[in-house]
């Protein structure tokens, strides 16, 4: 028995998201026969990976009744760090580790400001968002950083463009991230504490749990996953854009909310987030296949999210 | 005697499982101050809620200004001229005094424009009547609690109230502010208002009130002029009930002193020395706001100590966080299950093991699900917790069962010292008895138990020793044999012995 299977309502919400996803897939398949092909499905999943990975971190943050607006900025900074290290022909391993560490540190900084400084998560991560974007622009001098044309750059490109067993590497990374997060939330002490903290902070504190440490851990993980997403984006483009990831926090939050996680904290599942991210991914892909102009795409996306959330609150 | 403004007769009100009011009378007369007295839970607040229409009464009649009346809610009763000033003031700190007084009834002109000058002028007049020297343009948040209370009274007067009810008005006031309040009450009386004064402070009753109505366990006990009653008689009337035979006290040989506080002070706690031994139940009595919960939170590391120290088994220990306390073997079951005790959205299982999750996981942090499941099922069974299963969200359980989950959560940490703060509040009679039996089982096992309770019979029936608190200090200590409701109540209201 896992926490994911906890209550009837959670189960229904998950099914609802799943049903919505299935209906969408069927409708789009009927409208455009090119949709339901192996190639396009893998393509959709690969495109979804970046948002989905960020949404995993966002889920953990939102479960503690927090929010993280800095994910897009962290993605850009860590992408730039990795690109510049690869450009100086340092080993891929070092570039990856440095980027992930930077992401975790920035996230941890937000966590410390929130936990120790008692600053609201919205404000603290708004600060990080602006600060880190500024750092990225300073670091890159406002210009894209190319990873170059070396052997190291070629092996680095594997993260974003490679395949394993015929499946793109970003999909593997996404799958592994979800599995790890699911395990963490349902089978470890920290996971249990995350739910408890979001459900009732005072009671959790009085239960002898170091609440501050959990908050810092959660924002660090979110930062680390944003860095991971940054690595995928940078590797795929073989260059880091200083403006990369702008607005990604909203897509991640949308995926989490579509997945049935409560912004009040304490309630939600990682599987729901996966489904939420897939809905957004399929929608993006479908609108492209159906030749909807990118201007209308945003409107359509907004309406679908609104509809989904309305259905969700009505049925509660 | 002035004219009768308000008369409640034979008021009855039941909630599932409890008869909260049973034939209660209350009369308010113009130009007199009526004290409404009773212990915590005697029915004072319920009566006020019935009066203002928040609760619908089951039986009884209400006559207001000579007419049978029925209020559908506080808005209606207030418009009719009955104002209540609650313990927690209903004011907006960011608005001015005048805006607070006229909130929702702003003086407006023909175009809906607010007529500020009229509003400020009228508010200033009201303030003057009450002897408040502030301008009504002052931001409310800049006022002290006493002055804020005056604003509430001004608001009541602006409604052209005939009856003004004050619920524990002096709890947050300094002596000077209390004096000022009494002056105003005297003026209100002279001006022909009917005042109801709810308080458990005996001294104030004798100082400011003309008549007193006494409630006990939801029943009407007496109404009489204050000059015809003595303090002792009043206490007797407030508490005089028979001990029911539901407290199965057991005799256990007292062991060594386990926990000792050495002159500790903290927020709301002043220089308290407290001792509890193995196999002993120490009851902590006192009125609401006496600092009992604050003392427990200080011992548990939830509120910081400002002075003094805590000894465990004769050794000084440092407790800065609840975690330190739990590690030292001290468990605390909060009086406020919903806010401090349980995570209502999580399941029975997840709540029960929250404090002791280390016992149910590997060093790596991985949960040991089967071990956790077995322990939870065992507690559900031995505590007789009525739940469809361990996965049930604890918020769906009844109060008594929630409380049992909270106690189980404390016990999972295998404590040596158990602090129970109001363990039977909001718990039905059957579950109460089960909780008492559980407490006795822990006592037999040699646990040291601190039982904080506002329920007199419970304190008297369960404790080996009773400590009474008043305004953050210990005001009395009794053995089970010496203690009775009268001497405890006398200490609780701060009566000099």
TrEMBL record, chain A:
Keywords: Cell inner membrane, Cell membrane, Membrane, Transmembrane, Transmembrane helix, Transport. GO terms for molecular function: transmembrane transporter activity. Pfam families: BPD_transp_2 (PF02653). Its main location: membrane. Coiled coil: none annotated. It is a multi-pass membrane protein. GO terms for cellular component: plasma membrane. It is found in: Cell membrane. The chain crosses the membrane at residues 18-41, 53-86, 92-114, 121-140, 160-185, 216-234, 270-287. This is Ribose ABC transporter permease. It comes from Halodesulfovibrio spirochaetisodalis. The gene is rbsC.
From TrEMBL, chain B:
One of its GO terms (biological process) is monosaccharide transmembrane transport. SMART domains: AAA (SM00382). Residues 6-242, 252-496 form the ABC transporter domain. One of its GO terms (cellular component) is plasma membrane. Coiled coil: none annotated. InterPro entries: AAA+_ATPase, ABC_carbohydrate_import_ATPase, ABC_transporter-like_ATP-bd, ABC_transporter-like_CS, P-loop_NTPase. It is found in: Cell inner membrane; Cell membrane. Keywords: ATP-binding, Cell membrane, Membrane, Nucleotide-binding, Repeat, Sugar transport, Translocase, Transport. PROSITE patterns: ABC_TRANSPORTER_1, ABC_TRANSPORTER_2. One of its GO terms (molecular function) is ATP hydrolysis activity. It is a peripheral membrane protein. This is Sugar ABC transporter ATP-binding protein. It comes from Halodesulfovibrio spirochaetisodalis.
């Amino acid at each position: 028995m896992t926490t994911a299977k906890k209550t009837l309502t959670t189960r229904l919400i998950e099914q609802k998201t799943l049903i919505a996803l299935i209906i969408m897939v069927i409708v789009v398949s009927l409208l455009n026969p090119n949709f339901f092909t192996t190639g396009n499905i893998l393509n959709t999943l690969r495109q979804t990976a970046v948002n989905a990975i960020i949404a995993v971190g966002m889920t953990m943050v939102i479960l503690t009744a927090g929010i993280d607006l800095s994910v897009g900025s962290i993605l850009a900074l860590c992408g730039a760090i990795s690109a510049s290290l690869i450009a100086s022909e340092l080993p891929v391993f070092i570039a990856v580790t440095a980027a992930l560490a930077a992401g975790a540190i920035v996230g941890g900084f937000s966590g410390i400001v929130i936990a120790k400084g008692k600053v609201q998560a919205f404000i603290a991560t708004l600060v990080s968002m602006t600060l880190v974007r500024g750092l990225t622009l300073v670091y890159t001098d406002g210009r894209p950083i190319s990873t170059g044309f070396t052997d190291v750059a070629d092996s680095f490109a594997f993260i974003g463009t490679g395949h394993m067993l015929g499946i793109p590497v970003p999909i593997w990374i996404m799958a592994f991230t979800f599995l790890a997060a699911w395990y963490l939330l349902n089978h470890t002490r920290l996971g249990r504490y995350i739910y408890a903290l979001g459900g009732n902070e005072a009671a959790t504190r009085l239960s002898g749990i170091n609440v501050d440490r959990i908050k810092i851990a959660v924002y660090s993980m979110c930062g680390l996953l944003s860095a991971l997403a940054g690595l995928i984006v940078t590797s795929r483009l073989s260059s880091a854009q200083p403006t990369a990831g702008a607005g990604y926090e909203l897509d991640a939050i949308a995926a989490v909310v579509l997945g049935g996680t409560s912004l009040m904290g304490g309630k939600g599942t990682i599987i729901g987030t996966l489904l939420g991210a897939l809905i957004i991914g399929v929608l993006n892909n479908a609108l492209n296949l159906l030749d909807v102009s990118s201007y209308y795409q945003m409107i359509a996306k907004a309406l679908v999210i609104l509809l989904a959330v309305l259905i969700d609150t009505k049925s509660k | 005697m002035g004219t009768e403004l308000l008369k409640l007769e034979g008021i009855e009100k039941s909630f599932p499982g409890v008869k909260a009011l049973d034939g209660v009378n209350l009369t308010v007369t113009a130009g007199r101050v009526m004290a409404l007295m009773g212990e915590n839970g005697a029915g004072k607040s319920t009566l006020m809620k019935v009066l203002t229409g928040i609760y619908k009464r089951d039986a009884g009649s209400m006559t207001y200004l000579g007419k049978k009346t029925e209020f559908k809610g506080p808005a209606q009763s207030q418009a009719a001229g009955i104002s209540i000033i609650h313990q927690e003031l209903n004011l907006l700190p960011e608005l001015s005094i005048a805006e607070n007084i006229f909130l929702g009834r702003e003086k407006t002109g023909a175009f809906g424009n607010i007529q500020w000058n009229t509003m400020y002028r009228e508010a200033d007049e009201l303030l003057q009547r009450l002897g408040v020297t502030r301008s009504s343009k002052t931001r409310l948040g800049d006022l002290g609690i006493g002055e804020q209370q005056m604003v509430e009274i001004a608001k009541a007067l602006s409604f052209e109230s005939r009856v003004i009810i004050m619920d524990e008005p002096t709890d947050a006031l300094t002596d000077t502010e209390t004096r000022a309040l009494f002056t105003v009450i005297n003026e209100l009386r002279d001006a022909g208002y009917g005042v109801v004064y709810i308080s458990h402070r005996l001294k104030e009753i004798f100082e400011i009130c003309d008549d007193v109505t006494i409630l006990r366990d939801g029943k009407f006990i007496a109404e009489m002029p204050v000059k015809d009653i003595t303090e002792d008689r009043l206490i007797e009337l407030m508490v005089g009930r028979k001990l029911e035979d539901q407290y199965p006290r057991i005799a256990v040989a007292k062991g060594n002193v386990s926990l000792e506080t050495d002159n500790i002070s903290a927020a709301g706690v002043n220089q308290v020395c407290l001792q509890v031994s193995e196999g002993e139940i120490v009851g902590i009595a006192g009125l609401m706001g006496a600092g009992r919960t604050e003392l427990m939170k200080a011992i548990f590391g939830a509120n910081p100590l400002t002075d003094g120290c805590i000894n465990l088994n004769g050794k000084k220990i440092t407790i800065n966080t609840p975690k330190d306390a739990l590690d030292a073997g001290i468990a605390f079951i909060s009086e406020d299950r919903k806010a401090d005790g349980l995570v209502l959205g999580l399941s029975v299982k997840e709540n029960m093991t929250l404090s002791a999750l280390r016992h149910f996981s590997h060093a790596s942090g991985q949960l040991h699900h089967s071990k956790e499941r077995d322990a939870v099922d065992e507690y559900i069974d031995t505590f007789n917790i009525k739940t469809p299963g361990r996965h049930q969200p604890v918020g769906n359980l009844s109060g008594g069962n929630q409380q049992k989950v909270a106690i189980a959560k404390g016990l999972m940490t295998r404590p040596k010292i158990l602090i129970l703060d109001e363990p039977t509040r909001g718990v039905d009679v059957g579950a109460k008895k089960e909780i008492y039996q559980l407490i006795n089982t822990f006592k037999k096992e040699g646990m040291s138990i601190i039982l904080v309770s506002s329920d007199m019979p419970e304190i008297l029936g369960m404790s080996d020793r009773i400590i009474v608190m008043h305004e953050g200090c210990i005001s009395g200590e009794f053995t089970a044999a010496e203690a009775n409701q009268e001497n405890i109540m006398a200490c609780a209201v701060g009566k000099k012995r």
